[in-house]
Amino acid sequence: MALPAGETEEFEIMEDRSLSGVGGNLMPYGKAAVLAFVNEKGGVAKTTSCVNLGAALAQRDWRVLCIDLDPQANMTTAFGVSAEVAIAKEAHCLLTMPRFPLERAVVSTQVDNLDLVPASARLADCDKALVMEVGREGRLRTKLREFYRSVLTEKYDVVLIDCPPSLDLLTINALTAATHMIVPVTTKFYALKGMALLGEMVATLHEQIGATVKMLGILVTMFDKKTALDVTIYKLLREKIEREFGDYVFNTVISKSVLVSEAEAGGFPVLLREPDSKAAAAYRALADETTKRLQPDMAGLLSAVPAVGAGYVS
Length: 314
Ligand SMILES: Nc1ncnc2c1ncn2[C@@H]1O[C@H](COP(=O)(O)OP(=O)(O)OP(=O)(O)O)[C@@H](O)[C@H]1O
Ligand SMILES: [Mg+2]
What we know:
- The chain is an alpha/beta fold.
- The chain has a single domain (18-291), classed as Rossmann fold (3-Layer(aba) Sandwich).
- The chain has 12 helices and 7 strands.
- The protein has helices spanning 46-59, 74-78, 83-89, 93-96, 126-129, 139-149, 169-177, 195-209, 228-244, 258-265, 270-273, 278-299; strands spanning 33-37, 64-68, 107-108, 114-117, 158-162, 180-186, 214-221.
- Strands 3-4-2-5-1-6-7 form a 7-stranded mixed β-sheet, with helices on both faces.
- A hairpin with a 5-residue loop joins strand 3 (107-108) and strand 4.
- The relative contact order is 0.18.
- Magnesium ion binds at residues 46-47, 70, 74, 162.
């Protein structure tokens, strides 16, 4: 793959190919966690959760990097980053060009302590561009590992990856790079549909390309406690997951609030736009719970098991 004119030397630092193989180090990012927000189902608040959890962690002085891996670029918009800036950053090259370094794709945002790798529609071409490429599932992981190995770059404490609503190569790259995944779900009848597929994919990534991603939690979003069906489905979902798999449902529930979508449409996390709202408080509670759930792994060893694998929800 050709490099942009005149940029060959700049990329020479990325020549170390020893990290590009599969498997390997279980603590590839030092003490940092890499969280992928994933659900094949569209409109379940993957992006909104990623944006607001990122902002809540940044407010606690965590250094946060959000990576928008969705060609819809909703997270990029939600942070108020323009399409022109996103296109100019050429972040899709992270996947298509072996020597395009992560730091080159990073922009700062109006949230202190929070940077972004923006997305553009060009991400949608990655599937086709990489169809014949060896190791295409691990491109993002390689870039992140190189970033964390480099002595030249300031490191982030956490990386949050927003995935598209599909189990495509972009999501595979996110899951292969991630240490943990968060699955946002809404309290709809088919909330768990697709989970089995996700579980199978994660199991395959573990077996075949050395992914170590673990389930951090299932996050109930857009909940309406005044709607009887929402309450019923929430109870059923919680019971089923706890009975069959364990304590995987976040205690924090994100309620439906027009403030959330209004803030997002204005290019701000609700935490910044309406810091005193219940919605902002919920995301701060989510940050607390996330920190607690991450504690065992971030404090020391990142154990490869138990991963939430095959047959996650039947
Ligand atoms: N708690 C909430 N209350 C009200 N609206 C919300 C809430 N969370 C998200 N939304 C709105 O719901 C819509 C879908 O959310 P979002 O874009 O985060 O979902 P998604 O899973 O990322 O979607 P996609 O699969 O298309 O990427 C958006 O318009 C968003 O502003
Ligand atoms: Mg989204």
